[in-house]
Amino acid sequence: MLLATLLLAAGPALAADGEMTGAPVPWGMGLQQAGGVLKRTIHDFNELVFWIIVVITVFVAGLLLWVVYRYSAAKNPVPSRTSHHSLLEVAWTVVPVLILIVIAIPSFRLIYYEDRARDADFTINVQGRQWYWHYAYPDQGNFSFDSYAVADADLQPGQLRNLTVDNPLVVPVGATVRVITTGHDVIHSFFIPSLGVQRYAIPGRALETWFQVDRAGTFYGQCNQICGTNHWFMPIMVRAVPKPEFDAWVAQAQARFAQGQAPGYPEPAPVAVASAAR
Ligand SMILES: [Cu+2]
């Protein structure tokens, strides 16, 4: 947490109403603020690795300076002929192995923590498509809808360019949400930095992950697997709201998306592909 505090001196991006915005900030140097437990765990691991790197860098730089000074040609007119030192060789083999083990244990623990939801409250099916997201809520009546980026011309004041969508994912604050990803056409990737979520969306495969948002707010992400011409234009937007508000949203979403697809934005024009046979 210390590192996060140092790098993000601005503190959590909380609006006047206490809502958090999980989005990149200008000149942001560190990881995005955590909107949930997964991201906090990632912050902790990042901090552990950061301080290990600091210690190693300072130690190696110090050694180098000391060697340059102590073993310069001026100080040693007759060069040493030492070529082996068994203890040193064992040390510089064993110590890095120990350091790697210290990194590997929490690293694997984190990977398995992210891998599967325990006692999920409900599931959201996420499908990456060229170039928008398709979301389904199987546990709330199995309604589904498309989520398109809002074009610059339609952006309202306060909306984030290239991050705001027409139909965001909505989840209740505090709920454990299982996410199952698939790809419709090519490989996409479902990535929400402030929630610590990242999963490939691969055609013909179902991959699992989960997240939990611990405060109300809006959390932004993007497809982060290059998936074609409009890859840059398939953002992700998650609204975390109190449970009663979520239930109300589900009720209206069931009605609104019952007839199939919401209007959304028109599909981008297909890219002209040279049809010449090879
Ligand atoms: Cu994509």
From TrEMBL:
Which EC numbers does the record give? 7.1.1.9
- Broadest EC class assigned to this enzyme: translocase
Topologically, how does it sit relative to the membrane? Multi-pass membrane protein
Occurrences of domain Cytochrome oxidase subunit II copper A binding (ranges): 119-252
Q: Which keywords describe this protein according to UniProt?
A: Copper, Electron transport, Membrane, Metal-binding, Respiratory chain, Signal, Translocase, Transmembrane, Transmembrane helix, Transport
Which InterPro entries does the entry mention? CcO_II, CcO_II-like_C, Copper_CuA, Cupredoxin, Cyt_c_oxidase_su2, Cyt_c_oxidase_su2_TM_dom, Cyt_c_oxidase_su2_TM_sf
Catalytic activity annotated for this protein? 4 Fe(II)-[cytochrome c] + O2 + 8 H(+)(in) = 4 Fe(III)-[cytochrome c] + 2 H2O + 4 H(+)(out)
**GO biological process assignments:** ATP synthesis coupled electron transport
Query: Which residues are in the Cytochrome oxidase subunit II transmembrane region profile domain?
Result: 23-118
Instruction: Please give one Gene Ontology molecular function term for this protein.
Output: cytochrome-c oxidase activity
Give Gene Ontology CC terms. Answer: plasma membrane
Q: What is this protein called?
A: Cytochrome c oxidase subunit 2
Source organism (scientific name) = Humitalea rosea
Its lineage reads: Bacteria, Pseudomonadati, Pseudomonadota, Alphaproteobacteria, Acetobacterales
